[in-house]
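The pair is quoted verbatim below.
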Amino acid sequence: MTESGAHNNGHIGLSDVFASRRYFAKFERITGHLARVAAVMQAEGSLSKEEVEILTGYVQGISYTFRALAMKYLLVGRDTGHFFGSLSMDSVESGFPVFNELLIMANDAQQADHHLSNMPSAQRLKAQMVEQIIGERETPTRLQFALSQRLYYEELTKGYLFWAQNDPQVYWLGGVDGRRSYLLHWAVYDSQVNLPTIYLMTVEDTGRTPLPHDERRWPEAQAHLMGQALGGLKLLTIAKGFDEAFDDLHPKRLRRLHVGPMYSHTFTRQTGPMRDVLKEAMAPEGQDWTLAWTDEVLESERVIEERAGWFGRVEREVFALDPFSGRGVDTGATRMERSIILPERPYQVLAEKNPPGFASVTKFVVSPGGRVLRY
């Protein structure tokens, strides 16, 4: 049985119905584990309560996006009377769906209500299926397809999905001495690497009007941040650009999480040690995966004052860069941590092989019972 269809620059179509369903089931499990990882990180102090709340929302969104796509491609490879294609995934780099899948989904969401108003209800479709099975003794593939598309559009209208662009939102942290403190957060699906990327920025606001109620600054700040949400940009570049664009908004901390790649011996063809580990682990179905993520943090070290105009002065942040071996200049961050989450069987092989470069990677291991332990 083939897992995939045509290859195109590392993008493959999951054209086999069983492969497609296994792929979506795998991601449903992985996103479920990520919420537990966030809880472990909060317990050990590397994520705040607010950050966990925000990240959990995005992970849930990723899960809803996969659920919608699973409905859309539920009958892939079956004769449904429609040429429908199959899910395009990036098998070489990310293991996630390609960026274009999310663009098409956003377009479908705009028209979901229109589609639903022209479709029979789920109850009606199910009744027709029963009639066809009993009356004509046939598999009602076309009706199943119609129902899967109805469920797809219903998922889209529920909202809270992870889109190609997820605009900045504000989380109020409190205020001291006339300074309001906010946690701004936004996210994109990085089109270069086909991965979800989440941004968190702690900002102090010394403007006259609170930022979320400021009809001039807030739309400008949102547009500025979305324009800079590119994985290729260093955090230092993003934070300095923001600091200089807004005299009364002071970025104290910027954090970026790249979720993925996902490795699976069955589905992906990445190179490197993880591929060998999964091949050797020969893990049973459901345990053949590893999800990596990168956590970059940039922190303000101190504030300097600069002249602005004739008589004014403005605060500017001086950011702390990673002091080790001058790498901070290269990474543009105060620190950068790589982590992976994986089931027990692949973890045992990884521990035995101990490939170079993995000693500094934080490992979160999922026990058969679903508990997450940090190593």
